[in-house]
Amino acid sequence: MLKKSIEKAVSNNVLRSERDMERDQYRNPVATLDFFGVQPNMTVAELGPSSGWYTRILAPLTVENGKYIALNNSPTPGERYERGMQWRETFIEHKSGMFGHNASARFIGQTVPFAAPNSVDTVLIIRGMHGQIGRGDVNGLLAEVLETLKPGGVLGIVQHREREDFDTDPKETMRGYVKQSYIVDLVKKAGFELAATSEINANKKDPADWENGVWALQAGKPIAEKDQKFREIGESDRMTLKFVKPVK
């Protein structure tokens, strides 16, 4: 029954464009959200909604009985505050009302946590850990997520997967790929338990050795506009990791 709710939010959803849906074959949203245990009555926080690809699924999924929180990094020194609020302008105050009255946009990494302690069911970081590592305070972010999650709550991570045989610095994130072993170790040291891993979003066609990193795959383009070899490859090889906050 719960999986059917996710299926409905993915396939029977007027908010999603054709371009959104052509990526389903690579991003596997039904299987991914089901793996993380996302349910319609949960409080779900999404770090870095970007253009809103997952947002347009999570919004109708949680609008009636749950709550959606858009999380954004606090503006860095010199960065315009307005830029950091773009998610609120784009999504939360959207005239479609797709979020309901309980949705909110928050900054992460401030003196006050983005939510009350032990109040959030799930935090999702989809294709964004490389950016968090590159910002330099990923440990502070993970500490805040750990504090706000309920005991047993889930941190779900989908990330472009670096090859384990590559001698790369994980903090040099211009490639967009990060080793799975590095992320598992990083998140476990932050106090989480690794509950499960999945190959839902794996792609053996991606050699992950592009000189320009993951962006060489042209994921931002419609499939019809990609170079032929990148149409055949699809999108990046990705790890899918389910961590939980320990129940004491």
Task: Provide an overview of this structure.
The chain is an alpha/beta fold and 248 residues long. It has one domain (2-244): 3-Layer(aba) Sandwich (Rossmann fold), CATH 3.40.50.150. Helix content is 32%, strand content 21%. Strands 1, 2, 3, 4, 5, 6, 7 and 8 form an 8-stranded mixed β-sheet that branches. The chain is globular and about 45 Å long. The two termini are 30 Å apart. Mean pLDDT is 87; it is low at 80-85.
Show the helix and strand layout.
Layout: H1 2-11, H2 18-22, H3 24-27, H4 29-36, E1 43-47, H5 55-62, E2 67-73, H6 81-84, H7 86-92, E3 104-108, E4 120-126, H8 129-135, H9 138-148, E5 149-162, E6 178-179, H10 180-189, E7 193-198, H11 228-233, E8 238-244
Parallel strand pairs: 1-2, 1-4, 2-3, 4-5, 5-6
Antiparallel strand pairs: 5-8, 7-8
